[in-house]
Amino acid sequence: MSSPSVGDPDFRPVVVIPVYNHEHAIGIMVAGVRAQNIACVLVDDGSEAGCARALDALATAHPGEVFLVRLTENQGKGGAVMAGFREAARRGYTHVLQIDADGQHDPADIGGFLAEARAHPAAIVCGCPIYDASVPKGRLYGRYATHIWIWINTLSFDIRDSMCGFRVYPLAPVIALIDSVAIGRRMDFDCEILVRLHWRGVRVRNRPTRVTYPLDGVSHFDVWRDNVRISRMHAKLFFGMLWRSPRLLWRKATGA
């Protein structure tokens, strides 16, 4: 399999998939990624033995195309994705396409995301979910409170959906950010990193994508703990927005 980045040193994308006990879905996800002619980094976030064996088998079966990073203790989604960022940078990739392990996202959309990222290499390409009937209504309606907070904390509507884990990042500003700021390491990660990159002037491109809930029925969202984390994150970002607000408003007014 050849990489879609061959011949383009300024755009070398790789897929990063954080994995925590998704042994029943991850094989299908990896097959979908490989069908799009792109390598992937699997980050084993302290999974149990059955999932760890499945990941070992995938990496062994696809040398040079599927890379495995193993975290000995569970770090949370954000911790796993950031480990994937660092591995991608170490291997010389310029962009990371993040996709979830549980089958929510359609790998057939990868090509469109990468085409948009190639056309706008300095921007984040952020998924905007198109749900089918499988979406839990509580999760669907609960997202709107977060959307409102993100719009407040960026003083813009640039980020249409901050919770979708299907997106393409330019690695250089991401590595600079995570090297200098402590980002939430669990379910608060997806929202916080987008806001902080937006504060730093990284543009956001919003792209529709189909979302289905999920192939193996495994969800690691803890309703109590993760909602508390997300609420704390919004409060922290709000106070961060206040002292940045003159610059954010100036940027909005001038289009800078």
From TrEMBL:
Residues of the Glycosyltransferase 2-like domain: 15-139
- In Gene Ontology terms, what is a biological process of this protein? protein N-linked glycosylation
The record's listing under InterPro entries reads: Glyco_trans_2-like (IPR001173), Nucleotide-diphossugar_trans (IPR029044)
UniProt cross-references to Pfam families, sorted A to Z: Glycos_transf_2
Q: Which residues form a coiled coil?
A: none
CDD domains in the record: DPM_DPG-synthase_like
Among PANTHER family, the record links this protein to: DOLICHYL-PHOSPHATE BETA-GLUCOSYLTRANSFERASE, GLYCOSYL TRANSFERASE
The protein depicted here goes by the name: Glycosyltransferase 2-like domain-containing protein
Biological source species: Arenimonas oryziterrae DSM 21050 = YC6267
Query: Could you read off the lineage of the organism from its UniProt record?
Result: Bacteria, Pseudomonadati, Pseudomonadota, Gammaproteobacteria, Lysobacterales
